[in-house]
Specification:
single chain; mainly alpha; Growth Hormone, Chain: A; 2 domains; globular; transport; transmembrane; membrane; transmembrane helix; MFS_trans_sf
Length: about 400
């Protein structure tokens, strides 16, 4: 099929619908906790975050799999694994099996995570490529938003049935099977690997990856603790959190569309401003006395996150050694997914160390941490600006 046809492009973009679908069940945490009273809160929260551990492992393994079976088959294998693993909790009420299935859901996504972007860059050029890249990012937010809202709807039928949202994976599986035709590129990938110059990692890349790990670990508290906060404060039910969290991805779509123009105005300050806004949003949430205030705080933090996150991907390309942008981006992705995966563990550890164990306390600690990172990033980036080591605004 012609790569410029609507069906080809729609099918190619469709695989991005489930890229960030792992956390959409975060609002179910209080309900799942009731079914597994012997498990700690951190253990239950792993159900929402363990897919990111599967993603980071299989992002690293995907190139080896592509080498043997090609890109299209790798995407289809990933979608199939994600579909089956995603639906397992609907039928089996065992904490261990659910946790394992969630890991394999992430593993399936990890197989085609990088391909969701690289196929666009390989098949298209210029303005068409830029347009599709913007749509690719938006598709992830759209998928997350729709699935988060569906989780809220299915909750009334029991938390297990909420995992039916992952049946959405059938759509990209069918579309990619029918309308995407790619050459068998196993040998081609192998050949490219030989021709590529040796990549390396430097200290700034490692520091940025650790920085991203901390940012995502702190920010993910909003996904893990919003439902619990509503229950603890009596402001609402867990299903209400699904609608609130959906607002985060909605504002992400809007920011993504206008990100280039926003960056031209804020430039490097987009990162510290984004981090500061995330912290302020958390403070609004923990001090909220109504659902509307919680929603407002979530929107502020989500909008601010959408400002900060893309800048880190831009920055890693600037600080990476020559000819090592791909490796540096991969390392950044590992840091991000580790941050999401370890968020419950880090939050639980901080709670035990400080004796602050409520959901409101979690928002307070993370909010303070994000504001501190905002100050730190402002100082570091200001120093970098003097050395002219900032992203080129002309590339936006």
């Amino acid at each position: 099929m012609n790569k410029n046809s609507f069906l080809f492009k729609a099918s190619l973009l469709s695989i991005s619908l489930v890229l960030v679908a792992g956390p959409v069940v975060s609002s179910l945490i209080p309900l799942i906790q009731q079914s597994f009273p012997n498990q700690s809160t951190s253990s239950i929260e792993l159900i929402a975050t363990v897919p990111n551990f599967g993603i980071l492992i299989f992002v690293l393994l995907s190139n080896f799999i592509i080498k043997f079976i090609g890109k299209k088959k790798t995407v289809l294998l990933g979608l199939f694994v994600a579909l089956i693993a995603g639906l397992v909790p609907v039928f089996i009420e065992s904490y261990t099996i659910i946790l394992v299935s969630r890991f394999f859901f992430g593993a399936g996504i990890g197989l085609f995570n990088a391909l969701a972007v690289s196929l666009i860059t390989e098949l298209y050029e210029g303005e068409q490529q830029a347009s599709l890249m913007g749509l690719q990012a938006a598709m992830g937010s759209i998928g997350s938003t729709v699935m988060t809202l569906l989780v809220g709807y299915f909750t009334r039928f029991g938390w297990q049935n909420s995992f039916l949202v992952y049946a959405v994976t059938v759509l990209p599986l069918i579309l990619f099977t029918l309308f995407i035709k790619l050459p068998d590129d196993g040998k081609e990938v192998s050949g490219q690997a030989v021709k590529k110059e040796k990549e390396s990692v430097n200290a700034p890349t490692i520091v940025l990856s650790i920085f991203a790990l901390i940012v995502y670990a702190l920010f993910f508290v909003v996904m893990l603790k919003t439902a619990t906060l509503l229950v603890e404060t009596g402001l609402g039910k867990p299903e209400t959190a699904a609608s609130i969290l959906g607002s985060i991805t909605i504002v992400g779509i809007v920011v993504g569309v206008f990100y280039g123009k926003i960056f031209k105005v804020l430039k490097q300050n987009v990162l510290p401003i984004g981090l500061l806004g995330m912290g302020i949003g958390f403070m609004l949430i923990l001090s909220a006395s109504s659902i509307s205030m919680v929603t407002a705080g979530a929107i502020v933090s989500g909008l601010s996150f959408s400002l900060a996150a893309p800048f880190m991907f831009m920055l890693v390309g600037q600080v990476a050694p020559k000819n090592s942008a791909n490796l540096a981006t991969g390392l950044l992705l590992v840091g991000i997914n580790l941050g999401v995966f370890l968020s419950p563990t880090i939050n639980g550890f901080l709670g035990k160390m400080t004796g602050m164990t409520s959901a409101a306390d979690s928002f307070l600690m993370s909010g303070i941490g994000l504001i501190a990172l905002s100050v730190l990033s402002f100082v570091v980036l200001s120093a970098q600006k003097k050395k002219q080591v900032t992203p080129d605004t002309q590339k936006i």
